[in-house]
Design brief:
2 domains, mainly alpha, elongated, homodimer, Arc Repressor Mutant, subunit A, DNA-binding, disordered C terminus, 204 residues
DNA sequence: GTAGCCTGAATGAACAATCATTCGGTCCGT
DNA sequence: ACGGACCGAATGATTGTTCATTCAGGCTAC
């Protein structure tokens, strides 16, 4: 039986590392456990990654890029900030359903210990584009005033808060609930003092 | 002076553990580092804590109780949900300014690895009382409908998101900014479709 | 076709460093 | 002079990483 699978050993290691890092955190995971979970020998990991630190950085960037890729699928500018926010939120919900471990790894852990400059730069670039979305909306009057980074933190923070509540069993979180809450969270961005309603774009 | 020096060695260990756990995480902190940072010998820690795990649990509960104590200072029911939310939010801001490490330790790390049943029960009790606040507001029509735990997660998540943004240097977060954003976050709880304004209590 | 070589991925025992924890001994308040 | 707080070197387990070795399969020479 011809076994396909040339260099997806690297992918197996990354997948095992994601599962373990997400569950118990970088510092509590031994390389030998990652190797065992990936079905390879301990030394094999070092064929693909120079060190545990580099493995963690590769994983971090892979997850960040996957999330960023999902978000960049939204058409840049179309029907205004309200509609664009709707698409962004839907992307988040989709990603949370498709790759929950990646999101939880990114948002439920502190990465300072191992993050290198390249990873930090990637993270900063993504944050900057999120802040830019808010700035555009502010210029057109569709988004309230205030530090764009603060508004981004509010919105993304509430999304992560929902996921964490689901993760810790405090709340049953599914795509339906998240979709329902979209307009509630939009209230964080909408200019105050006037009612805001459903997004422009209809259903699929 | 009287009997100081007795059990504030325990406090010194807890303080050192908080600082280190918060900065790099449980798994990346050696007991010897905690001891050195607290100014005691390695073995001394075991006079006060049976193990590293128990030390972490004691610290976790201390932080949770400090936060809960701050929040319980708000008078239970006075001028309605809007005013009570204002006091809760102010408590959060106060606590974040007074004990930033405690809040960061609680909210920026995954504690599953070491949390025991008592710690989990304490956490659940605090969450339940937060959900109850929302339920009361829903009954009186001052808070929008929806799963109370979800609304709590949205509000607390956005608060934590702000702190994290400040912590990671994406944003300069001070008490003034947090206070400014109070009414924005209240928008997550206020019933939709009508404008909501400033809290009852005046002041500066 | 096939024997023989060659490359480099894969292995897992071995290694030094570090870990959490222990314990015999010192010190001090009473 | 007694008991417990305190120390810090000792202990054995575990850590991240290395390296001599194995082995599969593609290449060349004939």
């Amino acid at each position: 039986m011809g076994d396909d699978g040339r260099l997806d050993r690297r992918a197996a290691v990354l997948a095992a590392a994601l599962e373990l890092f997400e569950r118990v955190g970088y510092g509590n995971v031994a390389m030998s456990k990652i190797a065992a979970s990936a079905g390879v020998a301990a030394g094999t990991i070092y064929t693909y990654f120079r060190s545990k630190e580099e493995l963690a950085n590769a994983l971090y960037r892979e997850c960040k890029l996957a999330l960023a890729g999902e978000l960049l699928d939204v058409a840049p500018d179309d029907g205004g900030a309200r509609a664009e926010f709707g698409r962004v939120w839907r992307s988040l919900v989709t990603f949370a359903a498709a790759q929950p471990a990646a999101l939880s790894f990114l948002e439920n852990h502190r990465h300072d210990v191992y993050l290198d400059d390249e990873s930090k730069a990637l993270s900063a670039a993504i944050d900057a584009s999120a802040a830019d979305f808010v700035r555009r909306g502010q210029r057109s009057g569709e988004i309230r005033s205030g530090p764009p980074e603060a508004l981004v933190a509010l919105v993304f923070g509430s999304f992560v808060g929902l996921l964490r509540a689901g993760h810790e069993g405090r709340l049953s979180v599914d795509s339906a609930l998240l979709t329902e809450l979209e307009s509630t969270v939009w209230g964080l961005l909408a200019p105050p003092g006037r009612p805001h309603d459903t997004p422009a774009g209809g259903g699929t």
